[in-house]
Amino acid sequence: MHSLEQLKQSLEGAGQAHILQFWPELSDLERDAFLQDLSQLDMTRLREHCEGAARAAAAPSGSLDQHLEPVPPASIGSVRKSDSKALTEWEHEGLLQISQNRVGVLLLAGGQGTRLNVQYPKGMYNVGLPSSKTLYQIQAERIHKIQQLTDRKYGSKSTVPWYIMTSEFTLAPTEKFFKENHYFGLEPSDIVMFEQRMIPAVTFDGKVILQGKGKIAMAPDGNGGLYQALVDNKVLEDMKKRGVEYLHVYCVDNILVKMADPVFVGFCVSKGADCGAKVVEKACPAEAVGVVCRVRGVSQVVEYSEIQQETAELRGAGGELVYNAGNICNHFFTRAFLQDVAETFEGQLKQHVALKKVPYVDSCGNQVKPTKPNGIKMEKFVFDVFPFSRNFVAFEVVREDEFSPLKNADGAATDTPTTARNSLLTQHCRWATAAGAALCDEHGNTLPAASASAGDSAPVQCEISPLVSYFGEGLEMLKGRTLQTPLILDEEKAKELQAQ
């Protein structure tokens, strides 16, 4: 623990003496807590962080357009365009790697559900499915199912460890939630939760913002904080000990995520890639998603705001957008690559400036809730390691099957609980009808397959548990049947239908 005098000198040296301006007003208890917080700060890094933030916020953003080119076709696989033989081979390769316990999944779950108007982690959100399952439960059950499918094929006893990166805000509630739900049937020792770092929010002139008289305003360091957190929490050592060589990294809010997707993993392994990204075709030129492309010959994600409109609208000979590979925060990394990043490249990761409204205490000690941005939060993004890859690949998937994020509360135009729920139910209706089932309402009226389209109209209430089907397989028991909706096809119901 620093002595107060040492601390004052260190803060002065870092240009942050104002942090202790309310010290005389704090109680002994508040002082102890504040000292504890301040002792965690690395003063040299603090100075660099504050000066860097002020510089970055003032810097004009240059145009990248003349340096852009699409990812070369040789580095892209596609669910739609690759032939079925290749897709089957990739899937077998992925399942083989899973059977040898060489594949792990890593969930980025540092964010709270603030935009959903809830104060708990997003993974605990229930979008209103007939089963009332949360995102965490759906994802856990998909892990369970992919292990089961693998073991059935290879006679193995596979384990896909689940690494979950949380933040100061989400760690305790997530741990509690998993414990209360008996880890959703997974082995607790195969779920590894760890915390990303928090960093101070800074004013435009590079001063740390005080949230209270004895509290610094802190924020998670973005999902790119993953690479530092892997080191801080010895996660790479854990992977090595378990024999995990490949990692599927994804974001908590995608209700359609295929956990440890064997096709994606198999594609990346077959290509000898150290780094891969799933992409979806952009819905339109103006869609606000980052684009996976090359800049000066180096693979990376370019944010929507960094591309000029005319470049975003460029089309190829077949009428398709030239820059249409939308990034969906769904990635593949080898452990060796992550080790490289941790040892060599972490310090070179790009810092992104986010201008935020940060509540603070003014010089008189009054709480202020700003109405316009007053602070800078510096963030790193998980995709900022792509430029360090030696063999980067992209894998295009079908949006309706694999991407429906939950970002906003109902009432917003897109990415709401309703759109997420509808995407999943619609997918399950497609699976049921593809398996040869007809769906009817409670009065026995057959429902046309067309009514199972996504969008705003409520789809048919047909939900298939991930424990029954991972991605539409294993539904032979539905062939030739008329199923009354609303329907929850769980393991019990599936067994009942098989027995008939």
From TrEMBL:
SUPFAM superfamilies the record matches: Nucleotide-diphospho-sugar transferases (SSF53448)
Keyword field contains Lyase: no
UniProt-recorded Gene Ontology molecular function terms: UDP-N-acetylglucosamine diphosphorylase activity
Sorted UniProt keywords: Nucleotidyltransferase, Transferase
Record-linked InterPro entries: Nucleotide-diphossugar_trans, UDP-sugar_pyrophosphorylase, UDPGP_fam
Presence of the UniProt keyword Nuclease in the record: no
Annotated region (Disordered), positions in chain: 57-79
Signal peptide: none
Pfam families, per the entry: UDPGP
Spans traversing the lipid bilayer: none
GO biological process: UDP-N-acetylglucosamine biosynthetic process
Protein family per UniProt: Belongs to the UDPGP type 1 family.
Protein's UniProt name: UDP-N-acetylhexosamine pyrophosphorylase-like protein 1
Protein's organism: Eleginops maclovinus (Patagonian blennie)
